[in-house]
Design goal:
three-stranded antiparallel beta sheet
Length: about 475
């Protein structure tokens, strides 16, 4: 119920109850007749036949059974409903949001939501990093199944007029909102900030840095509680990049968790990342980190057992007393010259099952080292930041053993620093790379601590090389 709906319902119910108990100069007119003064009697008398008691909602209140002195009007109404034991009726007029608040308590929130709430209310931080099952995992809330972003939007929408989601990937980036009014409030805050500053910048939400700048302008405008979620935050603060893109007109993203204005507000920022090693260490040190674990499956109640048919009052007839059916006589009918009509039957060709190809990961190390040494020298710093050398070496290793899988692929970087792949199987390869966490982790290990100059050779991380070889062997 909305607050207005609850108030209207309470007024209607008050009129209905008080219609049975009219007061006029201390005279009570009720189902038991007219009485003088208050409800005072030394003996028990029949309980008034109120409609909600007659319908069996709950036990009658003690005030109506013993006829203790009570003031009339709303006090009598309060006594009646406080004495009822039905939880639904109490929830309708109780605190915590009425019926909606009562039903909210029965929702099955994940444990990481409770941890986020407790640590935020303890004023531990305003910026939190959620890692783990943040992408592709569904959570059962009892009445709905949502992913991590959906759970956060539903949980935060009840306390904040603005809940936004920045999705920096796939390009172009965009800001989504939990509702239509959230977008309206957001735009009003941005306009208010620009009016106070006396300047208007043409910021586009299709660029992650400019989208963050618009979010900061809304956060810098006081008066409205806000919450923003940033999915795939390793795209805006990757661990392998030494410098991040500047946010126009806003502090550096790494300084947001310690910003005095943000810490003094009721605003909340949640960064979502699958693994902590993908994010800049400065953010992990300054923000709160919470692990998102998948919810255990709900236990299903045991089904009722099948009743014992031997206890049925009508037993089945005894089929042993029935006469046996005569055995049929089967006379085969063969065509004439059967041997001539069949002819010679060809022998069936037995195709042996194909055994899976087993590739030893250790055997891939030499060719991977050779391919990575060439690709790291072939791409510049921007290409290495986009993980193109590892992508190219992976495609070469797969093409050596399975040349018809994707064909020849070419790799480049667009003006936004995002990888661009061309070729017959470009879409399939890019889809595999984005969905494979192991390949992305191996590429991050191999490109993390590269020197600025590779003239003296390419140092390859042995752990990253071993992980990449194992993953390619499994793909083959």
């Amino acid at each position: 119920f909305r607050a207005k709906d609850r108030d209207d319902l309470m007024q209607d119910e008050t009129k209905r109850v008080l219609a049975l108990w009219q007061t006029d100069n201390g005279t009570i007119e009720g189902p038991l007749g007219r009485r003088e003064g208050r409800l005072r009697s030394p003996k028990r008398e029949p309980v008034p036949d109120l409609p909600f008691i007659r319908q069996g909602i709950g036990n009658p209140p003690r005030a109506l059974v013993d006829h203790e002195p009570r003031t009339l009007g709303l006090k009598l109404f309060e006594d009646v409903f406080n004495g009822l034991c039905d939880p639904l009726v109490t929830a309708l007029w109780g605190g915590d949001g009425g019926l909606r608040g009562a039903l909210w308590k029965f929702m099955r929130w994940p444990s990481w939501i409770d941890e986020l709430k407790d640590r935020y209310l303890a004023d531990e931080a305003n910026v939190f990093v959620l890692h783990g099952a943040v992408d592709g995992t569904l959570f059962d809330l009892g009445d709905e199944t949502l992913d991590c972003v959906g759970v956060l939007k539903r949980f935060l929408s009840r306390t904040r007029p603005i809940v936004g989601v920045l999705r920096p990937w796939p390009h172009p980036s965009r800001i989504e909102f939990a509702g239509i009014m959230d977008r309206t409030h957001f735009e009003n805050l941005v306009k208010a900030h620009e009016f106070v500053e006396g300047r208007t910048d043409a910021l586009q939400e299709t660029e992650p840095a400019e989208a963050l700048a618009r979010i900061w302008r809304a956060l810098d405008t006081k008066g409205t509680d806000q919450a923003y979620l940033i999915t795939e935050s390793e795209r805006v603060a990757p661990s392998h990049r030494r410098t991040l893109d500047a946010v126009p007109g806003a502090p550096d993203l790494l300084d947001w968790p310690q910003h005095a204005g943000l810490r003094a507000s009721n605003n909340l920022i949640v960064l979502l990342v699958r693994r902590l090693d993908q994010l800049r260490s400065e953010l992990l040190e300054r923000a709160g980190t919470i692990h998102v674990a998948a919810m255990p499956p709900a236990t299903t109640p045991d089904l009722p057992t099948t009743p014992d048919l031997s206890t049925t009052p009508h037993p089945l007839p005894d089929f042993d007393d029935l006469p046996d059916d005569p055995e049929p006589t089967i006379v085969p009918v063969l065509p004439p010259n059967l041997d001539d009509s069949l002819g010679e039957m060809p022998e069936p060709t037995i195709v042996p099952p194909t055994e899976p190809v087993v590739v030893d990961p250790e055997s891939l190390h030499p060719e991977l080292k050779r391919a990575l040494s060439q690709t790291f020298l072939a791409y510049d710093a921007q290409g290495r930041a986009a993980l193109l050398p590892v992508m190219d070496a992976t495609a070469q290793a797969l093409a050596t053993h399975q040349p018809d899988r994707w064909g020849t692929l070419s790799f480049a970087v667009d003006e936004d620093g995002q990888p661009v792949i061309t070729g017959t199987g470009a879409d399939a390869f890019l889809s595999l790379w984005r969905s494979d966490i192991t390949l992305d982790a191996a590429a991050s290990m191999l490109t993390r601590e590269l020197p600025e100059s590779l003239a003296g050779g390419v140092p390859l991380d042995p752990t990253g090389l071993r992980v990449l070889a194992k993953r390619i062997a499994k793909l083959l």
